[in-house]
Design brief:
This protein is an alpha+beta fold. The chain has five domains: 179 residues, Rossmann fold (3-Layer(aba) Sandwich), CATH 3.40.50; 85 residues, Translation factors (Elongation Factor Tu (Ef-tu), domain 3); 72 residues, 2-Layer Sandwich (Alpha-Beta Plaits); 88 residues, 2-Layer Sandwich (Alpha-Beta Plaits); 113 residues, Elongation factor 4, C-terminal domain (Alpha-Beta Plaits). It contains 14 helices and 32 strands. β12 and β13 form a beta hairpin. α7 packs across α8 and α12 runs antiparallel to α14. The radius of gyration is 28 Å and the shape is globular. Its EC number is 3.6.5.n1. One of its GO terms (cellular component) is plasma membrane.
Amino acid sequence: MNTRNFCIIAHIDHGKSTLADRFLELTGTVEKRKMKDQMLDQMELEQERGITIKLQPVRMKYTPKNLKPDSEFILNLIDTPGHVDFTYEVSRSLAAVEGAILLVDATQGVQAQTIGNLYLAIEQNLTIIPVLNKIDLPNADIKKSSEEIIKLTGCKEEEILTCSGKTGEGVEKLLEEVIKRVPPPAENSAKPTRALIFDSFYDDYRGVVASVRVIDGSINKKDKITFMKTKADAEVLETGHYSPSLVPDTSLENGQIGYVVTGLKDLNHVKVGDTITATGAPASEPLSGYKEVKPMVFAGIFPKEGNEYNTLRDAIDRLKLSDSSFSYEPEHSQALGFGFRCGFLGMLHLDIFQERLRREFELDIIATVPSVAYSIHKTNGENIIVKSPQDLPEAQKIEKIEEPWMNCDIITPQGFIGNVMGLVSERKGRYKNTEYLSSGSEQRALLHYEIPLASLITDFYDKLKTVSSGYASLNYEFKQYEPTDVIKLDILIAEEPVEALATLIWRDDAYKLGKQIVNSLKDTLPRQQFVLKIQAAVGGKIIASERISAMRKDVTAGLYGGDVTRKRKVLEKQKKGKKRMMAHGKGKVDIPAEAYLAVLKR
């Protein structure tokens, strides 16, 4: 079979999307006049930030010059994200292919996420092709990077390919090696139809469009299909492939990757990881799909205007369709009204999600301070998971609280080991051991730590880059729950608690964080007509406080002549007015989005 299914995995910013551009050019999949940088990063946010957020499949046709000249091959490529927050996108891509290009930047060497993604590929028993990219740059160190790859994968030096995604050097050889090394899909065309859904999106006119890998049999236009997990039935309105736009075909054959237009308008009928089979001759068992991902960071998302709740729900439903690692459930807040408690894999995931709601659906939203999921053991023997500060039971009802701990891998040059160790110990991390990836004067170390997730979700990544001059990289995964001492920190503005700013913190950090939050709010909240109090409280005790002075208006400017008592009379009137306004103004302060962001990024 002349079909090869493969994906590109790498650490963030190692050149996956640029290499994919060269593949598209070399195979003539996209016309030169339509070609642009990061062709497969089709989201505006991806283009702006220079990172891949969504996996993107594309089919290429290629006749290699140095293999059988008469054979045309169909190459199905999936471009994947590199950031740790989008690991689930990578795992879904790996389940749909037989091979993976492990791309390493020759100027940076192996990074933390390179290792994380490699382990995911090994779990799926994929053929790994190690490749060094960016060899055209003057500071590329091919020898050192090759040593690191050999130590990591156990491959031979001659198995490592070199290329430049920017200039195109070595790209043709790489495609030929993909054809040589990656095995073709198994021949299962006679078996009952089974296709794995690895992604999906919603079309206003044609309903849910599922991205699939056909494992057994084939899917034809007008076939009656059944979704084995949700038990939903549909008729195939169209099948086709990504090139990278949607190109219709009469059918999707065994081993191919493409899309199926289902016509279904109910978004709950199509789940990522589900199996499509023929309604008339169904398969006996579904495909294994994916392990359910556990969100680690939770935040409340509320519409700024209460009448936009239904619009927000529809928008979240649609984003859930194309982002299956995200979870949500309805939530009600006395201050913010009806909204959703949403689960994310990390802070970048949360940031991107908020931005997509604002841009793609033009929604004004309020996001509460993110929190991790705590396991609460109550005195009555009940065990609950708390995702929001508002759900924390009273102190006398709690027997113990447990928080999630992560296994954390940090790769850093030897010269910054001390700085990195200082940062991790400051964040309550526990040292396990150190491995060295390379030898010589510029030796790099892989530090293994255990660290509370609460330490990672705020600004740990930024601080890590600061203490290592940008050279360190980070990867982490869930380990277990461990006992902790956590309390609820309330923020009061004009003596009224603001639910969206409440947060769960370690008891011994309460004063420091309370002071940080009130200071950041003092800098971002607008001045009012009255003195504005900003306070941080634990229980009923105020632990930090700031004031924003009232706006000043010279009410005596219009007076001229006369006795000084005239001025005093007007000033007294103004003073009484401010007191009245302060009494009525409690809780009526409009908090701008910048203030919420200042606390999120404290």
